[in-house]
Protein: diphosphomevalonate decarboxylase
Amino acid sequence: MKATVLAHPNIALVKYWGKRDDALILPHQSSLSLTLAPLSVTTTVEFGAASDQVEINGHTAKGSERDRVLRVLEAVRGEAGGKLGPAKMVSRGDFPASAGLASSAAGFAALAVAAREAAGLKADPKVASMLARLGSGSACRSVQGGFCEWRRGERADGTDSYAVQRFDAKHWPELRMVVAILNRDEKEVKSRDGMKHTVDTSPYYAAWVKDAEAEVPRAVEILQRKDLQALGELAERNAWRMHSTAFAADPPLCYMNPATLGLIQHLREQRKKGMPVWFTLDAGPNPVLLTDAAHEVAAEALARACGAVDVIRCVPGGDAELKGEHLF
Ligand code: DP6
Structure:
């Protein structure tokens, strides 16, 4: 009745930006991401408590944060046939929320896998991915490691909208992601609200959906041949296009700040001098640099020279796991 699971966050190379169904968290387009180690969130779920309890990073969760967790627990109780009572969930991440990397992605992935284990259900990455999706869309891509593709699916009930692993973490061990923390402030507009505002008001939104969907198979093909330059170029243009749809929203939405642009400019100059480094950017000011093992130290130095207050160097991460034990 109790299980503890560790999961890693992920960074999208082709981003998810906009829902066709807000309640079921169904995206307009497919997306593709890379799981990030060593960063992780560890979550314990135990059924049999007196009432539902949700603790995240030492605090009792309230409001929508609590509701999202309860929604996942409720779905597991349903899957288990309604025989399970209230649960206690305790979750802790080992990286700062200010990193701008959604700890919710790793958190909901760990929760989905842990809750199903605690309920005695058979480990299944597809079912766990759909369950994690109910907490946060990007979480469906953190159930498995390596490179995961979230297929948008076609069905209205969401039963074909989940992430599949395209390549595992061992496929490209030299790949590096360097998180450049330029600003620790909490972002003004959360991804959930920003993407909804973009869907509702950006005249460029339809073009974004069409383009991003077409980029996913290209990204898979590039990953297959491990072409860093092609991947970097694809990740950059996809990030620019996501941000462009947001700039065009009404009122406009801008997640970048002057330091973000300064770093991007500097990165271009370094690239002209021969350094293999590209960026991607989620809904916040902190870029993630894409490079290889031979250049990760130089990429960190570049980020610090551009004002990064902290830098986290990441490698491709593995599947969500039951404390040291592989499930899938
Ligand atoms: C820019 O998954 O946090 O990071 O589904 O509303 O919880 P909800 O949103 P969330 O959005 C992630 C947006 C992104 C791009 C991405 O990770 O694909």
Notes: The longest strand covers residues 31-37. The mean pLDDT is 96.
